[in-house]
Design goal:
264 residues, alpha/beta, UDP-N-acetylmuramoyl-L-alanine:D-glutamate ligase, 8 helices
Length: 264
């Protein structure tokens, strides 16, 4: 006789990456690794590989709302993870969906560029994210280039970007690793003035889907009831391990190994 699952459900509103390195596949794998159940709702389709993105198409808002509504009506959503939205209209669509989930933690991964540098949305999407979605998010997880876009500070430091963005959001995790430093510094900023730094060894190479992996793992840890600083540490530690064990199946970036071989 089957017994009801006790795994927390995380609604993922993200794009589809046909290479399997980023997007919804990354969300699903990372959430399984946290002991959660992923409920993936597609926001956009992309044409990309492990090298770069060449095109994308944002889905019609009615399709995205219908997917999310089906999940919300059937499953007890414990957290929401946002990935690629791709348009201002999709930002408004997510706001409408979140009105149906009051009090549910929202992790916003502001996907504005692919790992290879290709754009995954027009410039105004970053502004809409900052003004409309960050205020309803629990935490955002931009890397430094994304934080600079959101803060409109092309050469801003992590501290400068955080100062500009914290009036819009309660917590902000700006990830490092985009320079040539030997040690990566990831900084968690909170509106109350607290700050936590999480350092890790820099790994060689470049990676496709590391941001999706981190944000999904963090959403999973919050869905499990972990407090924010320890959830951030758990998600960062998990992500670092997936990068340490990453593989290169294609001609471009490494793909994080989010599931251990013995789970396959």
């Amino acid at each position: 006789m089957k017994t009801p699952s006790s795994r927390p459900v995380v609604l993922c509103l993200s794009g589809h990456d046909p290479s399997g390195g980023a997007g919804l596949q990354a969300d699903i794998e990372a959430l399984i690794a946290q002991g959660c159940h992923a409920a993936p709702a597609v926001t956009a389709l992309t044409v990309q590989d492990t090298v770069n993105v060449s095109d994308f198409r944002v889905l019609d808002r009615d399709w995205v709302i219908a997917q999310a509504d089906a999940v919300i009506a059937d499953l007890p959503v414990a957290a929401v993870k946002l990935g690629m939205l791709g348009s201002v209209e999709m930002v408004a669509t997510v706001l409408e969906i979140m009105q149906k989930l009051p009090g549910v933690p929202l992790v916003c991964d502001p996907v504005l560029r692919a790992g290879g540098g290709g754009a995954l949305g027009k410039d105004e999407v970053g502004y809409a994210l900052r003004e409309q979605l960050l205020p309803v998010s629990t935490i955002a997880t931009p890397n430094l280039p994304e934080a600079r876009i959101l803060a409109e500070l092309p050469d801003g430091s992590p501290d400068e970007c955080a100062e500009r963005l914290l009036p819009h959001i309660r917590h902000l995790l700006i990830t490092g690793g985009h320079g040539d430093e030997e040690e990566v510094v990831n900084c968690l900023y909170s509106r109350d003035g607290s700050r936590h730094s999480f350092n890790c060894q820099r790994l060689p190479g470049s990676y496709h889907g590391s941001g999706c992996t981190l944000a999904s793992a963090l959403a999973g840890r919050l869905a499990l009831g972990q407090d924010l600083p320890s959830a951030v540490r758990s998600a960062l530690d998990y992500t670092w391990r997936t990068l340490r064990d990453a593989e290169a199946p294609g001609h471009g970036q490494y793909i994080p190994r989010r599931l251990p071989l013995d789970s396959l």
